[in-house]
Amino acid sequence: MATGFKPIAHVEMDADVKSSICIPMDAENATRRIIGVLDEYYDTFADLVINGEVNRAFIEAIAKKEKVDPQALYDATCHRMAGIAALPAIDENISEDDYRLAEYKLLIKNSGGEALHFYCKNKPITAYNPVIKDYFKSISLVPKLRESRAFVGFSRLEPGGVMPLSDKKRMLRRGPGDWLPAIEVFGEGIFFEFDAQALEKWAGRPAVKERTATLNAMYQDSFLAEIIPGYINPAFVMIHTFAHLLINQLSYECGYGSSAIRERLYCARCGDTRQMKGLLIYTASGDADGSLGGLVRQGEPGRLEDTIMAAIENARWCSADPICIQTEGQRADSCNLAACHTCALLPETCCELGNRLLDRGLVIGTLEETACGFFNSV
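^ thats the sequence. predicted structure below, dont judge the formating
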């Protein structure tokens, strides 16, 4: 029966959200009270800077009003301004890898402090059981972190081209303005610094090159290649898949819902000019899931090794095998090899790539060729 309505094509859209980890600019010995006052008045202090000199009289007046130590507030203001001035210029045209490099440099060492919004404790791999020493250079426990998430627009699942961020921002409003809707969330995490030499040696294996070439052929036909063109870095796929396997295991051991744990990848998808080889597994939310302390506790020596071993062991066999491990492409755009809902896929809020570019074979090897697995000798 005619209804008088014309069919409308179904168009799927994805929210485009950019996130970043807060980089601490405050001195480690600054108190929570001083940092709180500085957060509230920092923009005003910055506006009153003349010839590089802060307005000390105004800072002392604010200190008297807020009943804090004037010298401590002045020192904290100068320290934060010096830290911000030392950062590279950041604008909307900076690449994802460029601003993640600043985060990476903080995560591979002791940084931040208990009174700050970021606190990282780096541990050499020698502090852990030798069973994992051949794969990682160090592991950092992050008891405190703050993440900012900004909504910058929508993107189609199969875009015809890459829209500049400035154009997306203009489409969000009818009138003038340069701000974006954003939230701040707090949480904790574990950072893994992989052994770059071990990764390089592994990536040079013929079996790894052959398997990556299969995935790369599908990548070139997908919209992901329009965003970041080039040849897929096998280390990226391996680290990404390892993140999913570990999140599944941590969710089981720590009691977090799997959707509450996220990944943040510090590795170039194509090419490798910045030499980042890291992975942050973290939880950050506005509710209690962001502060339970379970991830950091599980990252301690004597605990983390068992978690890693269990994640790898569980990955060796999927209930969908041998179909899953032998597939030549599955899920959207066929941009996954051995990765299905039974073994490696996560809620899409956890994954930076919408559950794409995953392959269990590059982590543990395949039935025919175990040498392509980075952790095949565990």
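The first helix runs from residue 32 to 47.
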